Amino acid sequence: MKRFSFLLIKLFAASILFTSCLGKNDNPNEFANEQFYAVMDQYYLWYNYMPGVNPKNYRDPADLLEALRYNQLDRWSYITTKQQLQAYFEEGVYIGFGFGSAFDQSGNLWITYIFNNSPLNNYNIKRGWRIRRIDGTVPTPQNIGNLFGPPVTDYSCNFEFVSPTNEVLLVTFSKKSITMNTVLRDSVYDFGSSKIGYFVLKGFILPTIDELNAVFQKFKTQNVNDVIVDLRYNGGGRMNVANHLGGLIAGNIANNQVFTKLVNNDKNQVLNFNDTIKTKPASLTGINRIVFITTSGSASASESLINGLKPYMNVITVGSKTHGKPVGMYSFTSNSFDWAFVPICFFINNSLNQGYYFDGIPVNFNAADDITTDFGVLSESSLNSAIGALGAVAPKIMETNIRANYHPKFGLEQEIDAW
Q: Which of 181, 225, 251, 265 could form an SS bridge with 283, CB 3.0 to 4.6 Å?
């Protein structure tokens, strides 16, 4: 039996339920492999490029996925567990230390953001601090994936931090259940007759809706007439949440207009869907342009938000080009095993049928992600450029030679994109 619902993953979640009487196998994942192969053959966007393989010959669905993946375009299909999938997309919960990071060109590792319930907040550690050593080892792009250890509570690491004033802090932190706040910062700037609302959005998960409503109600109360959305670390998430943000931004000028079009493979044209923009109670009025700050970390639902608003508004992009993921996933789960299958299943286009931005969405104004400077500081390169793009007067950018270089992650780890 197949059951689709508006849950989880990039745009929609699809849950497919299987039942069976499992006999004795040499491979305990044999049934899961068979079901995964069937899912891929029916729903995978590039099913016609899959090689003919025997799923019984693979260790588990993750191993089978690598044999089936269309490597020319697919960088995102993944396998995880039902528990991890639900914890992140419905609750915003994962196991870790509660911060993001990026390297600079010299190989130094910097804190890029911190969630509210991260243990690092107890020491006033912020964006713009450096991590010099982890358990005595200097982090590099090559070893960082191993330095933070497994995603289990109470796993500890010894950190050596360097503050912006070059003070050294040695402290041990243990992993815990981190509840993400996806709005990392929000501010309103007054430039004479211009009031600019600015917020940093980390992801699109279920709790994000309440966070966005609060931010836009604040903007509405303070008569904001321009908005800057900082998506530089937003790797995507639930498309219904991206649609909600689209409604808060453009609901009063594009109500009931097509936001995105989902285009499935030729076996599933019945699943093609046009999602529409809806006016929300906190939707802003008088907004006919929007600025997005982006980097290569801006992906999927972030990109579909930008692309989806282009037919209705003057969309200005600042920073560096986006990741390049014009496709989305369904999730498939079973009552017979704990695996969750998350393959690429459809293209995402806007109302003008524009999409296919596998090379990323380019920016109108190039700007550095100055990881030495906290969010909201007007002289920070990306924010300063975004304010300048609106024609407002902001402090002159304080030039820095430090730029962010992002270390790649994959699967659900890419969705969370935090330690």
A: 251
Burial letters 375-405, b for 16+ CB under 10 A, else e: bbebebbbbbbbbbbbebebeebeeeeebbe
219, two tokens: 């903007």
| Tokens found for residue 2 | 């197949």
Integer Cα distance of 248 and 257 in angstroms:
14
In 306-411, the DSSP E strands lie at 314-319, 327-329, 332-333, 339-342, 344-349, 365-366
Residue type, 325: K
Mean pLDDT across the chain? 89
Give 151-183 pLDDT, tens digit per residue. Answer: 899 999 999 999 999 999 999 999 999 999 999
Average of per-residue pLDDT across 340-356: 97
Residue 169 · residue 199 · CB < 8 Å: no
Q: What's the rounded Cα separation, in Å, for the pair 49 and 70?
A: 6
Measured CA to CA, the distance from residue 249 to residue 309 in angstroms comes to: 9
Tokens of 301: 């639902």
Note the pLDDT of residue 403. 56
Three-class SS state of 371: coil
Asked if 245 and 309 count as a contact pair (C-beta separation under 8 A), the reply is: no
AA letter at 34:
E
Q: Largest Cα–Cα distance of the chain, in whole Å?
A: 74
| pTM tops 0.85, yes or no | yes
Per the DSSP assignment, residues forming a β-bridge with 178 are 94
Residue 28: which residues within 8 A CB-CB, separation 6 or more?
none
**What is the identity of the amino acid at 152?**
V
Is 310 in contact with 350 (CB distance < 8 Å)?
A: yes
Q: Which two tokens stand for residue 328?
A: 């989305």
Identify the CA nearest to 14 among candidates 371, 268, 235. 268
User: How many angstroms separate the Cα of 32 from the Cα of each of 181, 269, 330?
Assistant: 34, 26, 17
The 3-state DSSP class for residue 250 equals helix
Which residues are CB-neighbours of 124 under 8 A, at least 6 positions away? none
The whole-angstrom separation of Cα 202 and Cα 233 is 6
